[in-house]
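Preliminary data (for renewal application), adenosine monophosphate complex.
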Amino acid sequence: MSFAELGLSDKVQQAVASAGYTEPTPIQAQAIPHVLSRRDVLGIAQTGTGKTAAFTLPMLTLLESGRARARMPRTLILEPTRELAAQVEDNFDKYGINHRLSVALLIGGVSFGDQDAKITRGVDVLIATPGRLLDHFERGKLLLTGVELLVIDEADRMLDMGFIPDIERIVKLVPFTRQTLFFSATMPPEIQRLADAFLHNPVKVEVARAASTASTITQRLVATGREDYEKRETLRDLIRGATDLQNAIVFCNRKRDVAVLHRSLQNHGFSAVALHGDMDQHARMAALDSFRTGETPLLVASDVAARGLDIPAVSHVFNYDVPHHAEDYVHRIGRTGRAGRSGQSFTLVGPGDEKSLAAIEKLIGQPIEWQGPTLAERPPSEGSSRRRGARGEERSRGRKVKVRSSERSRGPSEERREEAPAPRAAQAPREEQQSRRPRQDRGERFADRSHQGRSRRDDDGDEKVIGLGDHVPAFLMRPVLAKKAK
Ligand code: AMP
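Predicted structure:
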């Protein structure tokens, strides 16, 4: 099938040709004609399937007639994260080169002023995260009664992030007669309920089961210890030993661990950037750009931050943690092995991860091979017997060292500088290594939090890396007697 057969306008077809696409992907071939005929669409598709163009291309065609009115956007696209929203905007830039459409992005971490000015002038396409959209609405700067087409993208991720009440509110603010396009990688019952409520007689378009993993990905499990410092050491060994490593994403379950692991990798001479929900918009974009351009080969990320990011050709995925939700495993490793290229994924498995691992193997319908000894075969780590309690003590090289609770994970191997160098691709530039980055590191950490503002809605779901992280001076750790309330 060719793009010419889908009913897209000439301007859109020209833009698609300039982008170098010759054939529509299955989701595009199936969805575009229905979107153009004004049907509601329920699309079950993961990122990487060409789903963004499946809605942006027909939207561009439909928007060619009519014009925007002040404060009343004509179409609205809801995205769970700022990065995804920014990526959709990029798609409009790319495919909208022959159009003169006004596109506005409403995401956290960007000043209200500029966004307000744009909306006031009138926009054809409004791309927003739910929280920021409601903030604008509550400020009385935005009317949603002119929305002709609503896209709810990554609905299952919206559910994970607790955005469903916001979405339900937004849907009530747009006209009942709108056209709705609803995309989700998976269809748990709660998402099905929303789809039933929001869509009118939709066409269901489904590509590749969410549980399927590409056959081009080599998946391996690697047994590791329970302690964080052991996991970090296992990860470093894996990165060093990886064959054909061009670039890699390292996934952590919690954003706090993203920050800690990022710093640790840098301290060990690896060139890495971090991506988690507590970083301000500028830092996130800078990190992503640096990774995309290949300047920095390692990206340490949380699921939410990395979800759906358009990063072509990642050679390796490392799961520093076994994901709690089996579906996240599929999404994570789906970052590699794209478009027929081969990719490798390694998942660190420690004591206590057995249940999550079993759920993943059940979901993907196959056992994953171990690289090296299995968890059961792995000798018990010295570390766990040496460590005592939450504010425990450890004996290290004959010295008795107090270990703060926040620093418990920093083991002897962490302090020891590695003899074996990081692979060239992942190695930090010389100056960076020499400076050991304490300044930049801390600067980044503070920068990450300095513009946070409210991260209530557009963020990953665990606690922030707060205060001084694990550089808390001892006097701050002393218990403080709270004054009794009168
Ligand atoms: P998405 O699923 O929207 O994140 O798209 C994944 C990647 O596929 C992006 O890099 C798109 O630029 C690319 N893409 C979208 N449509 C096509 C197409 N018809 N042919 C080739 N690549 C495409």
